[in-house]
Design goal:
7-stranded mixed beta sheet; 6-stranded mixed beta sheet; 31 strands; coiled coil; myosin; zinc ion binding
Length: 1397
């Protein structure tokens, strides 16, 4: 089986099907119940779903029955049978028309106590169900509907009631997210829900919208991948009322976007983006009557990406900070958070340096409330300090910011009084505050006093100093405080943008991909609404108009332009309200600017001008009573605005003498903050530092010349300062970006000739730029809804939610999303995307696309083909994607068949050629052997004949000599002796000479304990072992020759060899402390969080820099992990305790057993009986036997006898067990990490990367993977017999242990197959090399042992064959002793090395 076959089968098995179960009399009123199931779902699982869905009695026993003909026999399904697999065996007509098909059904039956089935009247029940079905089709009976829909477009009956009921039911289940197509509805629960852990970040990575439960992470993921695939900018628009959760949703979106870009490799830009959020919230958020953390400014965060998906930089744009909150708060409201953080969290040293007091002692803070329930101000101040450090604020800069905040608070405590009743001049009641403010601002106390009580006016030829009136002095004081805080906020945003800026962003030629997240102030309606609420609600009107344009107007215009059949859907158009407020020249904002320019204008004249211009407009009303207010009919309802302070807030500014006072400060931070141009301030700071350095160097040079004679060093040229001005370019770039929002700077410099623009003009310019940015990107909408006005957790107020649904036009939105077409392609894009399904070289035309749709039998009601575009609904798009996936797999399988045939042909030719070579070599070898035997025989015969001839000749010569001597000699000579006497005389003659070697051989010369040996081993060196006694004699001889220490080493060597052969393979290269641990079945992993997360154990907040752990899908502190007493339900579920297939690996293991019993049993049997079987894992066994063995192992693994099954059946069941694991051995979470490691260039780096990822596996996965790899190495070592190489094993097992996640695109998963196969092959080859290296070491030990044995054998032979001299014997003993000692030393060294390794 190939890799692609396995991957396709796995996806096919995980596809979802719908089963129609007919409950009959068990559930009255229900014709059939649709149940979603997979191919591997059992009948027991389907029955559990039916019980929960139909709310049946759980005490009764139910079974499923299959009927294949009307009124025919019922086939009762076993609990382990798979209904989907049985349904797939039905005829096509029954599958295509299951509702109206009368023959093939699944019935739900009740089982009696005695085991019999309770049927009832089957014929009458079928007749009634058919009548009910026909009445439902005709509309006489209501359609069966589900209670919960995660997409409102799936509602069968669409109206306000069903819409509200569906949202309420989901909210009660803590499901706060709901889709409307691609639009996300968020209902604020006013409670933190544990659905934002890193587990969910990985869960929603690279998933299609709608495949999983709705979530804010899904929108971020879809926008991120759409940006990478389409190479087009994206934006996410978050809108809703104040208190609906927009700020928190923005934080979650930014967190997920940065997590997607990191992919395991964190960079500094992501940390700065995450740190900027708490800083902006502290300085720009405050408690209001509707929200405890309300954003009092708008922000647009644009995250810039590289083409690879990594964050390159970011940019933050802010809109209209509510400055009036600094000096005045309404009932049940508070000032900005940062003041309370500072007063509660500052140290004693900081309190003394900044002159800090309690909040009750400041006028700007003691107007209403001081605290919020559940708030920890000290912890929030520490969090703010860390966030400012992450953004890049140095400790000195932070101290300057806190000093300025303290100065603003003390400035608000200054009180005025009149000097005399007749004079209008004023004085300060508490002059003791002036030194504190002047010290914090580092200005002169006298100048501060004059600026707060008098004003300077320049007339023609003279300069007048006039005292303020009491009300004017308070206004100037408050204006100074508001302008200082606004300038500080602008400076903080500027510094954050400078830290997030990338050098490539300043290059115009560089193409930037970006995702923008808009978090702007929500719609507000308070008791007293002023200029700030007017601007905020105008911004929300513009956003609602942008939403209507994209959802209703542009889409319907596109349908009409393409000429497709479409019925228009009416919606509320708010263009008239926008024109009333902003259209020139009679818009309310333009009339406000005109009145602000007239010195004599009042609030009443402004209201009169509104009446004259728009008295007949239906979108504006004026109260009947004489009240200085007007009413605007917004899209969200009517709002009354009081005109008091409209003109003042539109032109809120400081006088020039106040600006001159601040610019005279000795604090460079305050001077730079007041400066209008950051580039000029930066250059002036460098120039000032340069001149100070020059003066200091010149003074030092003069002092040096006075001491010693010499010349002064030359001055530093100005060109050397270019290195310090490299940052000027980035400052210019940021200045140009924020030029439209220089509200504070323009109002601080009224001495300029050009009059500064008003607040409303600046705000309109900001909105126009925002709309232009949104218009250039593809939008995603997130609609936030406030669940209740009391901010109570999980409280659903029907009237409040319904009002928000109405004014946002959600009913019309659902209707157009339900009847519209969610996917559209141009003809060329359609052909490019689905070219695999289309004929080759097809022309992208309307006729060809129509023919293609008719060919695949697509429902005509769910698609339309226009003039230039194809419109398809989401369901049909998914069907086309499935067809595309199947066709791609079919072509892959075809290529694999051709490739296999080519490989087989090549292998056959190679084997044929090899056979011919072997035959020719064998014939040549046989011929040479025959010739050699003939030559040896001839030589032997010649030698034997020569010996016989020589012996015969010598005897003849002796006989001739004896005869001649007898004939020639005297007769009295002694007669010849007998041979025995001759031998005696010869012995006597040689007694006086040196003994010959033969005589010496017969002497009893003893070396070691040879004399104790058996006789046959002393006298003959070539003994043949013919019995057990001979073998025993040889062993006794060797034991006497080998020293006891040597025998100890040999025994150690044999024991070490046996141990190493079974426990040689280790999967890791070096022991590393894993971060993944297990406790009570829970798998937890050390991590750090980037957003506020609460501990699931102790309910306290986990801070950004704290070390924490992920406990399954929950988050907790690292110290709380081992405190959990509850056991993991995934591992200790009693219902699944006996199962072996399709369960989590952690269920099958324990502390005592690291590897599942099934794995050990199957692998041991295969290694004992199938190690040399050809194609052990390539061939498949009988399907019935496989199913039988699997059921037996799943029910009772101990009583299964594997000897009853073929070895290929056992191997197939083992592969099925690996494929059925919910999480494979090399886990879905580490899939991308393995692919990234395989993408490295050098092999050494690739190996190191793969093993580092393996180190991250849990203990259970790692132990099982070690056992599997060791088994594969043993299989691969016998490649010559079983024909299973490392590559073949990797092709078989890579889809089993390194599967891609189900959410991966099919084409992408096909491209990753080579990487996964290469990864598994790399691991097997590396471990096989280690195995061979250890075996080589063992072979070296065996060689040393054999060498010692051969040496001892030589010694024995020398003792038997020759009789040595004492000198030679001693030399031979010494050499043998030395060689034996060397061999002992080598054995000890090898043993030590093997122990160490």
């Amino acid at each position: 089986m190939s890799v692609n076959d396995v991957g396709g089968r796995r996806r096919f098995e995980e596809s979802e099907y719908t089963l129609h179960i007919y409950p009959g009399s068990i559930a009255e009123g229900t014709i059939y119940c649709p149940i979603t199931a997979r191919k591997t779902s059992t009948a027991a699982e389907v029955i559990d779903s039916l019980i929960n869905k139909l709310q049946l009695e759980k005490t009764k026993c139910y079974v499923l029955a299959e009927v294949k003909e009307f009124g025919g026999e019922e086939w009762i399904l076993n609990p382990t049978d798979c209904p989907v697999q049985r349904m797939m065996l039905w005829p096509r007509m029954a599958l295509e028309n299951r509702i109206s098909g009368e023959d093939y059904r699944f019935l739900l039956r009740e089982k009696n106590l005695d085991g019999s089935i309770h049927y009832g009247s089957l014929q009458s029940w079928l007749r009634v169900t058919e009548e009910r079905r026909r009445m439902v089709e005709r509309g006489f009976l209501p359609q069966p509907q589900q209670k919960d829909y995660d997409d409102l477009c799936s509602l069968p009956d669409l109206n306000e009631k069903t819409l509200l009921e569906n949202l309420r039911n989901r909210f009660k289940q803590e499901k706060i997210y709901t889709y409307v197509g691609s639009i996300l509805i968020v209902i604020n629960p006013f409670k933190f829900l544990p659905i934002y852990n890193p587990k969910y970040v990985k869960m929603y990575d690279n998933h299609q919208l709608g495949k999983l439960e709705p979530h804010i992470y899904a929108v971020a993921d879809v926008a991120y991948h759409a940006m990478l695939q389409r190479k087009k900018n994206q934006c996410i628009v978050i809108s809703g009322e104040s208190g609906s959760g927009k700020t928190q949703s923005t934080n979650f979106l930014i967190h997920h976007l940065t997590a997607l870009s990191q992919k395991g490799f964190a960079s500094g830009v992501e940390q700065i983006i995450l740190g900027a959020g708490p800083v902006l919230e502290a300085f720009g958020n405050a408690k209001t009557a509707h929200n405890n953390n309300s954003s009092r400014f708008g922000k647009f965060i644009q995250v810039n990406y590289q083409e690879t998906g990594t964050v390159r930089g970011a940019y933050v744009e802010k809109y209209l900070l509510e400055k009036s909150r600094l000096v005045y708060q309404e009932h049940n409201e508070r000032n900005y958070h940062v003041f309370y953080y500072l007063l509660a969290g500052a140290s004693e040293e900081e309190r003394s340096a900044f002159h800090l007091k309690q909040p009750e002692e400041y006028h700007y803070l003691n107007q209403d409330c001081f605290s919020v329930e559940g708030e920890d101000l000290k912890h929030d101040f520490e969090r703010l300090q860390l966030a400012m450090e992450m953004v890049g604020f140095l400790p000195k800069t932070r101290r300057q910011i806190f000093s300025l905040l303290s100065a603003i608070l003390h400035l608000g405590n200054i009180r005025y009084k009149k000097k005399t009743y007749r004079d209008d001049s004023i004085d300060i009641c508490n002059p003791e505050i002036l030194p504190i403010v002047s010290d914090l601002l580092e200005v002169k106390e006298e100048m501060l006093f004059e600026a707060l009580v008098t004003r300077k006016t320049v007339t023609v030829g003279e300069k007048l100093i006039l005292p303020y009136k009491l009300a004017e002095a308070v206004t100037v004081r408050n204006s100074m405080a508001k302008s200082l805080y606004s300038a500080l906020f602008d400076w903080i945003v500027f510094r954050i943008n400078h830290a997030l800026l990338n050098s490539k962003d300043m290059e115009e030629s560089t193409k930037t991909l970006s995702i923008g997240v808009l978090d702007i102030f929500g719609f507000e309606d308070y008791e007293n609404n002023s200029f700030e609420q007017f601007c905020i609600n105008f911004a929300n009107e513009r956003l609602q108009h942008y939403f209507n344009q994209h959802i209703f107007k542009l889409e319907q215009e596109e349908y009409r332009a393409e000429g497709i059949s479409w019925h228009n859907i009416d919606y509320t158009d708010n263009s008239s309200c926008i024109n009333l407020i902003s259209k020139k020249p009679t818009g309310l904002l333009h009339l406000l600017d005109e009145e602000s320019n007239f010195p004599q204008a009042t609030n009443q004249t402004l209201l009169d001008k509104f009446k004259r211009q728009h008295e007949g407009n239906s979108y504006i009303e004026f109260p009947a009573v004489m009240e200085p207010a007007f009413i605007i009919r917004h899209y969200a309802g009517k709002v009354k605005y009081g005109v008091k302070d409209f003109r003042e807030k539109n032109t809120d500014h400081m006088r020039p003498d106040i600006v001159a006072l601040l610019r005279s400060s000795k604090n460079a931070f305050i001077c730079g903050m007041i400066g209008i141009d950051p580039v000029a301030v930066f250059r002036w700071a460098i120039l000032r530092a340069f001149f100070r350095a020059m003066v200091a160097l010149r003074e030092a040079g003069k002092r040096y010349v006075e001491k010693k004679t010499g010349t002064c060093s030359p001055r530093t040229p100005l060109s050397d300062l270019q290195g310090h001005m490299l940052d000027v370019k980035s400052l210019k770039h940021l200045t140009n970006l924020t030029l439209h929002d220089r509200i504070t700077k323009s109002l601080l410099h009224l001495h300029k000739k050009k009059k500064p623009p008003s607040i409303s003009a600046q705000f309109q310019a900001s909105l126009n730029k925002l709309m232009e940015t949104l218009g250039q990107a593809e939008p995603y909408f997130v609609k936030c809804i406030r669940s209740n006005a009391e901010k109570l957790p999980l409280r659903f107020n029907d009237s409040l939610v319904l009002r928000q649904l109405r004014y946002t036009g959600m009913l019309e939105t659902v209707r157009i999303r339900q009847s519209g077409y969610g996917c559209k392609y141009s003809f060329q894009d359609f052909v490019n995307h689905f070219h695999v399904l289309l004929p080759q070289g097809i022309n992208p035309s309307k006729h060809n696309i129509h023919d293609f749709f008719r060919k695949i039998k697509l429902d005509p009601d769910n698609y339309q083909v226009g003039r230039t575009m194809v419109f398809v609904k989401e369901r049909e798009r998914q069907l086309l994607q499935d067809l595309l996936h199947q066709e791609v797999l079919r072509r892959i399988m075809l290529l694999q068949r051709w490739f296999r045939s080519m490989l087989c042909r090549r292998q056959f030719l190679q084997m044929q050629f090899a056979a011919h070579v072997i035959q020719s070599c064998w014939r040549e070898h046989t011929k040479r052997r025959h010739d050699a035997a003939t030559s040896i025989q001839a030589a032997w015969r010649g030698h034997h004949a020569k010996q016989l001839y020589t012996a015969c000749r010598s005897k003849v010569v002796c006989l001739q000599a004896a005869c001649r001597g007898y004939l020639l000699g005297p007769h009295h000579l002694t007669p010849p002796r007998s041979p025995e006497l001759a031998g005696i005389y010869r012995r006597e003659f040689k007694e006086n000479k040196e003994p010959s070697p033969k005589v010496k051989r017969k002497r009893s010369v003893k070396i070691s304990n040879v004399a104790l040996e058996p006789v046959q081993w002393q006298n003959d060196s070539l003994q043949i072992i013919t019995s057990a006694s001979d073998l025993k004699s040889m062993d006794e001889f060797l034991l006497k020759k080998v020293t006891p220490s040597l025998m100890l080493q040999l025994n150690l060597h044999r024991e070490l060899k046996d141990t190493l052969s079974m426990h040689l393979l280790l999967i890791t290269t070096q022991p590393l402390s894993l971060q993944v641990e297990e406790h009570n079945g829970h798998i937890f992993k050390a991590t750090q969080y980037s957003i506020p997360t609460y501990c699931e154990y102790c309910s306290s907040l986990i801070w950004i820099m704290d070390r924490a752990s992920v406990l399954c899908k929950y988050a907790c502190h690292k110290k709380c992990c081992l405190k959990t007493t509850t056991k993991c339900s995934k591992k200790y579920d009693p219902e699944l305790s006996s199962r072996q297939f399709g369960v989590e690996l952690s269920r099958l293991t324990s502390e005592e057993r690291a590897v599942p019993v099934l794995v050990e049993k199957l692998i041991n049997y295969i290694e004992m009986h199938g190690l040399y079987t050809e194609g052990i894992y390539r061939k498949s066994g009988s399907t019935n036997k496989i199913k039988e063995l699997r059921q037996g192992l799943d029910t009772d693994i101990d009583n299964v006898n594997l000897d009853d099954y073929n070895i290929h059946v056992i191997a197939s069941v083992f592969k099925q067990w690996l494929r059925d694991l919910p999480n494979p051995l090399m886990t879905f979470e580490l899939y991308e990490e393995f692919l990234r490691a395989m993408g490295l260039q050098e092999r050494r780096e690739t190996v190191r990367g793969v093993y580092s990822v393996i180190d991250q596996l849990s203990r259970t996965h790692l132990s099982t993977l070690e056992r599997l790899i060791f088994h594969l190495v043993r299989i691969a070592l016998q490649e010559e017999t079983n024909r299973m190489s490392a590559n073949a094993l990797a092709i078989v097992f890579a889809p089993c242990i390194l599967r891609c996640p189900d959410t991966t695109d099919p084409l992408q998963s096909v491209q990753d197959i080579s990487k996964t196969t290469t990864c598994v092959e790399l691991i097997v080859i590396e471990q096989m090399n280690k195995y061979k290296a250890r075996l080589k070491d063992i072979n070296s030990l065996e060689f040393a042992e054999n060498k010692a044995k051969s040496r001892l054998s030589l010694i024995r032979r020398s003792m038997v064959r020759w009789t040595l001299s004492p000198m030679e014997a001693s030399r031979l003993c010494r050499e043998s002793f030395q060689s034996t000692r060397k061999w002992e030393w080598s054995v000890e060294m090898w043993s030590l090395q093997l122990r160490c390794s």
